[in-house]
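Incident log, entry 3
Record: Glucose-6-phosphate 1-dehydrogenase (501 residues)
Problem: checksum mismatch between cached and fresh output.
Input:
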Amino acid sequence: MRDPRDRRLPLIAGPCSMVMFGVTGDLARKKLLPAIYDLTNRGLLPPSFGLVGFGRRDWSDEDFAQYVHDSVEAHARTPFSEAVFEQLRGGLRFVTGEFDDAAAFEELTRVVGELDRTRGTGGNHAFYLSIPPGAFPQVCEQLANSGLNTSRDGSWRRVVIEKPFGHDLESARELNDVVEKVFRPEDVFRIDHYLGKETVQNILALRFANQMFEPIWNANYVDHVQITMAEDIGIGSRAGFYDGIGTARDVVQNHLLQLLALTAMEEPVSFEASDLRAEKEKVLAAVTLPEELGAHTARGQYVGGLQGGEHVRGYLEEDGIPADSQTETFAAIRLDIATRRWAGVPFYLRAGKRLGRRVTEIAVILKRAPFLPFRSTDAADLGQNAIVIRVQPDEGVTMRFGSKVPGTQMEVRDVTMDFAYGSSFTEESPEAYERLILDMLLGDPPLFPRQREVELSWKILDPITAFWAEQLPPTPYRSGTWGPDTAHEMLARDGRAWRRP
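Fresh output:
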């Protein structure tokens, strides 16, 4: 019997199951299935939880159980336990079929009903669409035709969709129309896994749980904000998805604009989903684009070079990439926010592949002190104060400020003060998909963007990508560097420079 003081109690999902489409893909194998196991291992899923895989492979339930076993043993974050897996195994089922196979969905209906009877899942079922967006209409139509989207007697049915939520505003609206014809808007959960990261959520704690930051979190004290998402890898095996999509659509439209919204939003009335989303939407609606997109955006494509001491191929040399591809692997843009808090404060966003190292961070760069009572030589090495939120990989917060150098002279130099999750807490942070899957099963939506956020983000990005397609081909940059020269020139025009993470 659980201790009533156990703080996990409100976070334990009730009776339910999940049907996973695309269960044999890399995302399911490396992230989703391990996350389900880890939640089971932490005692956050009910003992009767059911998991149904749907795919083309001619598998029995036992074959599927072995596949899940191998996936979680290889990729789970918590220690693997055969006893825990046996609990999960009892609810594992597999349905073989194509998305256009009505008979397969009839079998899926039977299997879901069997879980209700034998496992006590209570008619509560989530459908995880880990599939290309082009397959959504077919799967949603089949779910509707079979009645699987309809809940009864107080139970629930939910659908989970992965980004990308379209490739522009028009396609995002079309995609939403498809999904919301079958599921109610409140039953649609759009997953942006960045929002499940502890350090992203810590933006809210840093700002609103402390008195020291919020008074300076405005245009009176902030010079500019830099949001960086750098990867040191290339596209790998993602050529089929990535080419024609590019960095801006892949991560700027969702991850980086969500980080911007959390950084710039006003304090919500509460952390209820409606209040949190309302403030994020206000920020996105207030974003303005620079008048000269050619001067205040940059677009790049990596070429071969040295990275980590090894020679790596350029983008056009990657398998499956056309020799004349104009897809960008680096994107940088300046955005402004037309509110009293942020008037005159530029937000610089950049993301790219094959950059100097893997890092995601938000750097709030403060204005210089209006007066320094030191000789110019005493403070020659003094830069601007900064508050840096490190999202990954070294999760934490760094503050940069000036301090006197020990000695007989008054010499002031920049120093840093660090908070690191790894050394400050004994608890291990849950993986982003653990948090998001559990929140979805609990029906707790604050970390899931709704359609209005998606549309506002595309309204920001669409004019930029349209301009790029017509007038701004990608500029080559060597692998292992920090992007094309045009990105550095973009900030230099404003009298600023990119921070070196």
